[in-house]
Amino acid sequence: MPYEDLIVEVHDKVALIRLNRPKALNALNDNMMNELGEALYKFDADPAIGCIVLTGSEKAFAAGADIAAMVDYTFPDTYRDNYIGRNWEHILRIRKPVVGAVAGYALGGGCELAMMCDFLIAADNAKFGQPEIKVGVTPGAGGTQRLPRAIGKAKAMDMLLTARTIDAAEAERIGLVSRVIQADKLIEEVLTVARQIAAMPLSVSMQIKDAVNRAFETTLSEGVTYERRLFQASFGTPAQKEGMKAFLEKRLPNFEGL
Ligand code: HXC
After folding, report:
1. Does the record bear Manganese in its keywords (predicted)?
2. Which of 25, 81, 102 to mutate to test the pocket of ligand 1 (most atoms within 8 A of CB)?
């Protein structure tokens, strides 16, 4: 199905979703967030897909929520119509791995959307920031919550209160992104990473994602107990039989359909 504000491609078992409003540096509006939800749910339900990549353009992952759309909102509009809550968090309900590939600006809501991915790979031209304070609002899609969890209180407060942007090298150093890639190689490299993930047993990658996300919502002992149950349950799965037998038989495992 064609989308107005997204470009969607499938590369083997990897779905690539590109935010695509180039004239507005991919500023995130309602239509784009609705379409993103549709595309994400479609690929989450598609048994042929093992990993999803979310990206923007070389110039911008997304320069924020759409300021032109927001400028005249009133509090009753945003509260009554559940602005942000109504369509920004579809990505959090996706059970398959979602890798964010960030080139250019990831600002405000763009940085917040990126942080909802499971992990981020950045191009060397990436810039991350939470400049909402400069347009008179607080972050609204997790910036004050996910940023300190990702990079610690000092760096997060610095970015949130001064609106300072950080470059890809600093983002990698402080743990906001896992790797930095030359900008013109970003998509190629991220697709390679996503193909590696998609070649793993999907039931296991989904459980790892579930367990890691639980680490941010629960106590250490509850989280470790949950992990142990998942590990023990692995022994009832074909993925464990195939993976361990393949190792002992000195061959590559075949996790197709597992
Ligand atoms: C609407 C935007 C936009 C945005 C850029 N554009 N960001 N439109 N919402 N967030 C538009 C510009 O108006 C312009 O349109 C076109 O994209 C190109 O932008 P320029 O500013 O001309 O480009 P440049 O000089 O290269 O500067 C790039 C930039 C700057 C540094 C990223 O655009 C910028 O500061 N953007 C706003 C960043 C921001 O404040 N983000 C947070 C928004 S609040 P025209 O038509 O003039 O060509 C937010 C709240 C989140 O995100 C909370 C809930 C999710």
Report:
1. no
2. 25
Residue 105 Cβ inside 6 Å of ligand 1? The answer reads yes
201 sits in the region (left: phi over 0; alpha: psi -120 to 50; else beta) called: beta
Question: Interface pTM (ipTM) of the complex?
Answer: 0.99
Q: Which domain holds residue 236?
A: 201-249
Would the pTM count as exceeding 0.95?
Answer: yes
Segment 175-198, tens digit of pLDDT: 999 999 999 999 999 999 999 999
Q: Kindly report the CATH number assigned to the domain that includes residue 71.
A: 3.90.226.10
CB of 83 shorter than 6 A to ligand 1: no
The answer to whether residues 139 and 212 belong to one domain is: no
Tokens of 195: 């193909």
- Tell me the one-letter amino acid at 216: F
User: Kind of pairing, strands 51-55 and 179-181?
Assistant: unpaired
> If we measure between CA atoms, which residue out of 37, 177, 38 comes closest to residue 119?
177
Q: Tell whether 240 is covered by a domain.
A: yes
Quote the ligand 1 centre to 22 CA distance (angstroms). 11
